[in-house]
Specification:
Elements (H helix, E strand, L loop, with lengths): L8 H4 L6 E6 L4 E4 L1 H7 L3 H4 L10 H5 L2 H12 L1 E9 L5 E13 L3 E11 L2 H14 L3 E6 L4 E4 L1 H7 L3 H4 L10 H4 L2 H10 L4 E2 L6 E4 L5 E13 L2 E10 L1 H16 L3 E6 L4 E4 L1 H7 L3 H4 L10 H4 L2 H10 L4 E2 L6 E4 L5 E13 L2 E10 L1 H38 L8 H31 L7 E5 H18 L3 E6 L5 E5 H17 L6 E9 L3 E8 L6 H4 L23 H11 L3 E6 L5 E8 L6
Helix pairs in contact: 16-17, 17-21, 18-19, 19-21
């Protein structure tokens, strides 16, 4: 074992057949001799304190070769290795090297001495040939004139040519016709400024086999200095399967029903599908390559890069923004609530994230309606309790069970009772509507006579019709007799439709009720009046809770705007349909189609 102080750098500095480097224990260059400067092409000040790994190829660096050599030297005292090294301007050369660990008696390893010897002539050429031949990819060595100097077995296998058919022939032999004309210009441009890089970055590259078939390729270019002059070593990979997989992936993404956005680690959009264009209002070219924050409301944009970095640090399939309300931004500036699923994807371009985006506007509306219905149901219960007390005590007073009343007192109490009854009916309607909308209403099915129920509702409303001298006519098909549905709710449907027909009729008008069989075990009821009718604009507002349409006859008719909404919900609860036909000033017909019998499940 030798200490660093024992080396006489004055003598070693003059040795130019060997490159001698003194490294610290982390592998940083502390000193080197003239032989190292000659071999690497750098001056000492250009590499001082830099890692010795800079002299290894990108492939060796990725594989961790420099670090493994230091570890081996630390564990065993020295490490031997030979291979390609890279000097200034990416000049490649083949060397043999030995790395020896330096120690002292107190702290253990203090650094390393690295001695390299270049291989020249036939030995270097043979070793280079063996390395190229053993490469898993097609390797083609091309000189400055574009002639093929060397190929390996993988090249023969990939292109279908023998070595003899390729050596000393123009490399354009391996190119499709459409690229042959411009290739010499691209080759000369590379040779004028050679550096290790991927060929045709940003473009789709294709090669051509001996049989004329073309296929997509990925090509890495490595410049080399040889005794015959500068050359370029091209590593060629057939990416047909990768392209097929990418196309399959693209088709799956395109056919997805949800908006799909593929994002790289820099936060730029790499891929979108048609559903994304439709949801956000952007055309595909307006999104590709743009920052994903384009689709995020401004108030959330500042924090999003942080969230994205956190995801890529620990990528896993999960919903985005758990516990938070998420919103997206359309091209027109409108915002909408979304649900986003994140899926990490590994690709040749690095890690990506696939975001599946669902517009949950309708879900939010339904949730808000459910909360509203729950609130209305609770409030209706709270209001109904004191109101029942008011009605009960007013009835006791009207019946003079507590004491005698004069005419005026009796009239006032009757007004209180009538108003309370009207309010109770309104509260009951609100409660019924809330129950149906929240899914808490169940049907109570029974067999009953259709004629009996319809006649009963007509009798109930006859006194109201008489005040306006409205005539009610019933036309019941003999083919209809009994039905098996919810009797009370059917009565409620008829009451709402018939009372509206009377309320909005003209003086001495007419209401026609007809019931008849309908297709597929259904029956139809039609209620037609000769009243004021409904405008086309107002037809769109029908069945909306709390909306009244009689603004033209402002406040002449009492009502809450709940009757038709409740009627529609009850009909649909029976798996039926409701509709309306009307023309302003010429009367209205409401119709319902209901099943003859309901089977509860």
């Amino acid at each position: 074992m030798k200490n660093t102080d024992e080396f006489h750098w004055e003598a070693l500095d003059e040795v130019d057949e060997y490159a001698i480097l003194l490294l610290d224990k982390e592998g940083h260059v502390k000193r080197w001799n003239k032989g190292a400067e000659k071999m690497k092409g750098y001056r000492l000040e250009e590499v001082l304190e830099k890692s010795f790994s800079m002299f290894y190829t990108v492939e060796d660096q990725t594989a961790g070769i420099p670090e493994s050599l230091l570890k081996e030297a630390t564990d065993k005292g020295k490490a031997l290795h030979e291979g390609w090294r890279v000097g200034k301007n990416n000049r490649a050369f083949w060397t043999s090297e030995v790395i020896t660990a330096l120690h002292d008696d107190h702290t253990g390893v203090t650094g390393f001495i690295k001695i390299s010897r270049p291989h020249e002539g036939r030995l270097a050429q043979e070793r280079f040939r063996l390395v190229v031949e053993s490469a898993p990819n097609a390797m083609v060595l091309v000189n400055r004139e574009g002639k093929i100097n060397l190929v390996n077995g993988q090249t023969e296998k990939l292109f279908g040519y023998t070595r003899e058919e390729l050596i000393d022939h123009p490399v354009e032999l391996l190119l499709p016709e459409q690229f042959k004309y411009h290739h010499p210009q691209w080759r000369d441009k590379f040779m004028d400024a050679p550096k290790t890089r991927t060929m045709g970055a940003g473009r789709d590259l294709f090669a051509r086999r001996k049989n004329g078939t073309e296929f997509p390729v990925e090509i890495g270019l490595n410049p080399m200095e040889t005794p015959e002059g500068p050359m370029v070593l091209a590593a060629i990979i057939d990416i047909t399967e990768r392209k097929r997989a990418e196309e399959r992936f693209r088709l799956v993404v395109e056919s997805a029903p949800n908006a799909i956005v593929l994002i790289n680690q820099e936060g730029r959009i790499a891929l979108v599908n048609g559903a994304t264009e439709k949801l956000f209002g952007y055309a595909r070219p307006e999104l590709l390559g743009k920052e994903v924050e384009l689709l995020i409301p401004s108030r959330f944009r500042n924090m999003h890069p942080h969230y994205r970095a956190t995801f890529f640090a620990m990528p896993q399939m999960r919903p985005m923004g758990v516990g938070r309300d998420l919103y997206a931004l359309r091209k027109d500036g409108s915002e909408f609530p979304v649900e986003i699923g994140l899926n990490p994807i590994e690709s040749q371009e690095g890690n990506l994230v696939l975001a599946s985006i669902i517009d949950i506007t309708e879900r939010k509306i339904l949730e808000a309606n459910r909360l509203k219905s729950d609130f209305l149901a609770n409030m209706s219960h709270e209001l109904r309790t004191p109101l029942n007390a008011i009605l009960g005590f007013s009835e006791l007073l009207i019946d003079q069970k507590i004491g005698p009343l004069n005419t005026r007192q009796r009239q006032y109490l009757q007004d209180v009772h009538d108003s309370g009854s009207h309010l109770l009916q309104l509260i009951n309607n609100v409660l019924d509507l809330a129950k149906i909308e929240s899914g808490k209403t169940e049907l109570s099915v029974e067999l009953f006579s259709l004629n009996e129920v319809i006649t009963g509702v007509i009798n109930t409303l006859e006194s109201i019709a008489a005040k306006k001298e409205v005539t009610i006519r019933l036309e019941l098909s003999k083919a209809l007799s009994y039905v098996r549905i919810d009797k009370n709710k059917f009565r409620q449907i008829l009451y709402n439709l018939l009372s509206n027909a009377i309320k909005f009729n003209r003086e001495r008008g007419e209401v026609q009720i007809s019931a008849m069989p309908h297709a597929d075990d259904m029956f139809m009821v039609r209620v037609t009046d000769t009243g004021i009718g409904i405008t086309k604009e107002n037809l769109k507002k029908l069945f909306i809770p709390f909306v009244q349409l009689d603004s033209g006859m402002a406040r002449q008719h009492e009502g809450s705007g709940l009757g038709l909404a409740l009627t529609k919900n009850i009909v649909e609860l029976h798996r039926g349909q409701i509709g309306v036909e009307s023309e302003s000033g010429r009367g209205t017909t409401f119709w319902i189609i209901m099943p003859l019998h309901i089977i509860l499940t």
